[in-house]
Amino acid sequence: MNNKETGKQLKIELPENRAEGNYSNFTVISHSGAEFVIDFARIMPGTPKAVVQSRIIMTPIHAKTLLYTLQDNIKKFEDKFGAIKLPDKSGNTPFGFQPPPKSSLPN
Fold first, then answer.
1. How many of the other CB atoms lie within 10 Å of CB of 36?
2. Residue 11 CA, distance from chain mean position
3. pLDDT mean over 27-45
């Protein structure tokens, strides 16, 4: 039985020191037979490595629940703001930070 069926609400505490969050622009996901490990990392311009900001370890059931929740939220986002365009899979799309196009810079 879930919380909707029982009428109970789960209270979520967000400590002040975590409320700001961590920015991540790169993820690495690995798994074993028992768990999924998701590393959220940040790549900064001019640095040769990504720094892991947070590592989340979850069961396969929770990982699949996360997948469905992300899919639902991405659909809602795209319905409101338009499709999210992914980079070209051919490998020709630059990765990471890029300078703005010259046409957008002032003379």
1. 19
2. 23
3. 96
Strands 50-58 and 36-43: antiparallel
Q: What is the pTM of this model?
A: 0.72
Tens of pLDDT, residue by residue over 37-82, are 999 999 988 888 999 999 999 999 999 999 999 999 999 999 999 9
Please, what is the end-to-end C-alpha distance for the chain in angstroms? Answer: 64
C-alpha span between 77 and 94 (Å, rounded) = 25
Q: How many CB atoms lie within 10 A of CB 63?
A: 17
DSSP 8-class letter at 23: -
The residue whose two tokens read 């986002």 is: 77
Residue 21 or residue 7, greater confidence: 21
Report yes or no: 26 and 54 within 8 Å, Cβ to Cβ.
no
How far apart CA 70 and CA 56 sit, in angstroms, is 15
Asked if 55 contacts 38 with a C-beta cutoff of 8 angstroms, the reply is yes
